[in-house]
Design a protein that fits this description.
By secondary structure, this protein is an alpha+beta fold. Helix content is 25%, strand content 35%. The strands form two sheets. The protein has a five-stranded mixed β-sheet. The two termini are 28 Å apart.
Length: 137
């Protein structure tokens, strides 16, 4: 995975800070907005597992990402390629790996690089916001 991310960063001429694997301490809440989706799905699952490990029991993650109701896809026609997931993909790669339950799910439509956006039904959405709660193991 490290090689893939380094290759993508090199191809698009962007720096790669990388994910900090050692998160010390316990947190009540963590935000993951517009970042995790720029990794391969298996890497998303690993990241969410690490975030869960840093959360106190019953801690929360606020997750925001791009969304497709129909089918997941890898969007490569941009400087920061991303995976756009559907509900099943979010369950598989974001919710389940961290032993989370969805406390709240909302869909919205937004215009990239603007502050314009509005809540809507899943059929009209291009983004999703998940409030996840860590369950005790």
């Amino acid at each position: 995975m490290e090689e893939y991310q380094a290759g993508v960063a090199n191809e698009y001429g962007v720096s790669r800070i990388g994910f900090v694997a050692d998160i010390s301490g316990r947190y009540d809440a963590i935000t993951a907005c517009w970042a995790v989706q720029h990794n391969e799905p298996q890497e998303m699952a690993r990241i969410m597992g690490q975030l869960s490990g840093a959360l106190a029991d019953d801690g929360h993650v606020l997750f925001v990402g791009s969304y497709s109701q129909n089918a997941p896809r890898h969007q490569t026609d941009r400087a920061d390629p991303q995976w756009i997931l559907d509900d099943a993909g979010y369950s598989r790669y974001i919710v389940n790996p961290g032993n989370f339950v969805v406390a709240d799910r909302s869909y919205f439509r937004y215009s990239h690089n603007t502050l314009q956006g509005e809540h809507c039904d899943a059929c009209d959405a291009n983004a999703i916001c998940l409030q996840l709660r860590k369950t005790q193991r």
